[in-house]
Amino acid sequence: MNNASGASQGHGRAAGAVRAYSLMRGGLVYALIGRSFGDRSRRLHVWLAVVLVSIALLPIVAATFANDTLSGDTVDVPLLGDFSTLARFLLVVPLLVLAAPGCDRLMRRTLSHVPRCGLVPHEKRAAFDRLLDRVWSLRDPRWPEALLLVLAFTPVLFMQTTFDAMPGIESWRSVRDGSGRFAAGWLDLVGLPLFRFVVLLWLWRFAMWTYLLWRLSWLHLRFDAGHPDGSGGILFLGESQFRFAVLSVAGAILVSASCMNHVVHLGESIEQQKHIVIGYVILAVGCLVSPLMLLARRLFRVKQRALLAYSELGHLSATDFGQRWLQSAPPKSLLDSGDSSAIADYAAVYATVRGMSIFPMTRTTLAWFVLVTASPFLPLFIVAMPMEALVNRLISVIA
């Protein structure tokens, strides 16, 4: 009995420690679906994704099947030809729901690593704990997510009919005989609000993470300009930021699907869409990595101070080295003295300090950010450009 009690207490402490560094284990949604999932968390999110998609889409599928607008040529754009609607509920909603546990696990490890790796000086540990408490005071109350729910349903009050991105085209949402009213109404009153709520939850978590980075920039963390990661010891924060690429991918899926509707149903060319694609990729990646610039001010100061200190040390060391090796009798071999090795070690450290980046993200990670954000547009180019023309264009570029 004592062993069971001890194990239970240990599990409770572990669960508390997990939640203490979690961005998602709190708030209205977490309270509704349970505070502790253990090993079932992944399965629960799978079922949650299935339930949300079913609630949002199945009634629309049934209604369009009943009025013969699910597929075929009864209308210009049947439901199965509406890439924007299908992408929103079959791709974006499941993507955001299923990506949440993985993002939360990485963020927990990241936040718990901050005090363990020596970034937080002993005298600043209390301030760091207060910072986490301040962030959790935004995470745990019910009102922020309740407000997001209200915001998700607010557009319903200002919309008389479903927004149609392709005016003049008869679609499953705007059948002339009025048979599509139920499907369009369900989309407006249930489907789109659920979709907006899922997106707003992610944006709220991203906002809390951004606030945390901003407050960390004022906490006087112990950055080390000579750290091998080339970012003062906080490169792991930039690598963790990559998890939020799910937001840019979700947005890219929506933009790509909308462009595909215009290409397939309105006959627009890929040339008319490329500026939207390029602009979105640049804007989305810029917005998601920009919070890391909140740390640039402190990193710049640390780098400047370190450069001055190491420069002074280098001058003194070089002068002392010259006096020993040029103005006095040198040893018969360089192997007889450790001076040269010390100078070489100093040169390596100084090169690290000089090359320290004030933006804690590697070029490789940034390139992956761009690549995964742009990847949902590949189907658009395949649909808009015939395969033969696409191959010829690639060959001309390569050749």
Short description:
With 399 residues, the protein is an all-alpha fold. The chain has 15 helices and no strands.
Would you kindly provide a written description of the structure presented here, covering whatever features stand out?
The protein has 399 residues and is mostly helical. It folds into two domains: 200 residues, no CATH class; 147 residues, no CATH class. It is 69% helix and 0% strand. The chain contains 15 helices and no strands. Helix 4 packs antiparallel against helix 9 and helix 5 runs antiparallel to helix 7. The termini are far apart.
Can you lay out the helices and strands and say which pair or pack?
Blueprint: H1 2-20, H2 28-33, H3 41-66, H4 83-116, H5 125-139, H6 143-153, H7 181-216, H8 235-241, H9 245-266, H10 270-289, H11 296-326, H12 339-354, H13 363-374, H14 378-384, H15 387-398
Key terms:
69% helix; mainly alpha; 15 helices; 399 residues
Please report which band the strand proportion falls in: under 5%, 5-15%, 15-25%, 25-35%, 35-45% or over 45%.
Answer: under 5%
Mean pLDDT: 81
Total of DSSP H or I helical runs spanning 4+ residues? 15
Count of spatially separate domains: 2
Low-confidence residue ranges: 1-15
| Main pleated sheet | none
End-to-end CA span: 75 Å
Shape: flat
Helix content: 55-70%
SSE series? HHHHHHHHHHHHHHH
Structural class: mainly alpha
Count the strands? 0
Radius of gyration: 28 Å
